[in-house]
Amino acid sequence: MPATAADGGTAPALVHGRIITPGTEHQLGTYGLFPPSSAQQRTLMPGAVPFTARNAEPELLWIGFAELCGGAAERADYGALADRHSTWVIDGVPDPEAVSAEKAPWWVRFAEALEALSEQGTTLFVVSAHSLDWERAAAAWQRTRTPGAMDVPEVLAGIARRLSVLVRVESAAGAVPEGNSGS
């Protein structure tokens, strides 16, 4: 279901992209994604908070989860980055089931980033070595009642809804680009 814009119209959403696990070079290459070299690293300053991206081109932003969500970024910073880059690769996404009070704000920031990307209709590739089962993660966080993280189960449920429109590629054998039907 498309998101509703503030003016009552339909807002863009995350409709293009993939959730890729475990994120092998073959899987990424199938979608035209090639891990950046260290020489491609860029520091971006969309607002008051700097981000170190693995690569930043006019159309593509490739950034690690820790860099994107581990700092003091705010919703406006993510919006400014989304305005500049129409395709994002967020790699190194940790296991959301690994409950940790220090990681709780990271998931809140990830949700804020996803909201900004949805508003722009950004193409998103989420890359992780973990299965990224957001519903199971929400239940794990709820069971532990981690101090300072009481809203994380709801945040993870929101992430699950937002990312549910993306196709999952869970092994190299499952990565078949659109339009290719064999040899």
**Quick one: how many beta strands?**
10
User: How do the strands line up in the largest sheet?
Assistant: 6-7-8-9-3-10
Q: Tell me roughly what share of residues is in helical segments.
A: 25-40%
List the uncertain runs. Answer: 1-11, 174-183
Mean pLDDT: 86
Q: With helices defined by DSSP (H or I, 4 residues minimum), what is the helix count?
A: 6
Write the H/E string, N to C: EEEHEEEEHHEHEHHE
- Taken from the alpha-carbon principal axes, the silhouette is globular
Q: Which structural category fits the helices and strands?
A: alpha/beta
Strand content: 15-25%
Distance between the termini: 35 Å
Written overview of the protein:
- By secondary structure, this protein is α/β, with parallel strands linked by helices.
- The chain is built from six helices and ten strands.
- The chain has helices at residues 25-30, 65-69, 75-84, 104-120, 134-144, 152-163; strands at residues 3-4, 10-11, 17-20, 42-44, 51-53, 55-56, 60-64, 87-91, 123-127, 167-169.
- α3 (75-84) crosses α4 and α4 runs parallel beside α6 (152-163).
- It is globular, with a radius of gyration of 16 Å.
- Mean pLDDT is 86; it is low at 1-11 and 174-183.
